[in-house]
Specification:
It is found in: Mitochondrion. The protein has 234 residues and is an all-alpha fold. It has a domain of 156 residues: Methane Monooxygenase Hydroxylase, Chain G, domain 1 (Up-down Bundle), CATH 1.20.58.70. Helix content is 85%, strand content 0%. It has five helices and no strands. The termini are far apart.
Length: 234
Amino acid sequence: MAVLRRGLPYLSFLRSSARVLLSSRNPAGHKPGKWSRLIATLTVGGGLCAVPVKQVDNLSHDSLIRRAASLVTDSSSTFLSQTTLALIDAITEYSKAVHTLIALQRRYLASLGKLTPAEEDSVWQVIIGQRAEVNERQDEYRRFESTWVSAVKLCEMAAEAAYTSGAEHASITVRTNIQVAHSQVEEAQKLSMDADKKLAETKVMEIERMAQYVSSLESNNAEEEVPEAYLRED
């Protein structure tokens, strides 16, 4: 109510201005022209209008809706393009981090039993740090993936809105952009899937190699203890 009371003087001013302008620009007997329509548009709703006033005489509601729908598809396509780029970069960085971790783990397994305790501890610190890097890159990847999915849904809704409003070209364009984005992301995801597969294989290799190493140590210890047992019997 307070807003309405504050708006009443402004509305009264517009109406008074309309009467002055109409009386000065439209002599008796003349039909209302552009100025009358302009003033009428301004006074409706206390001076608020959804479109530029100069377009009111030339565009219908359908035309304005189609233009608005085209703007929506353009902005949603830009959003999709940006999130697609961010997601692909995140997937690429995650894949690189995984491959680096794989290389470190395989190098460690190849040198198992040949390192001093200090060297082994140093290598493990590097591996632990790389594992943290992998987790961080994966979190970033998942975060951008969630945003990208939202962008795809937004574009799908924008395409549907454009189609129903008659902006078929805008609808087709944004749907094409969705297909391209899907294709690009799928190609990038193949890299991450391949990296994950190799990491899983490396973990299996690590378990097997560690089991062999422990078994070898136990066997060596047993061989060293047998002569001592015979000596004690003698």
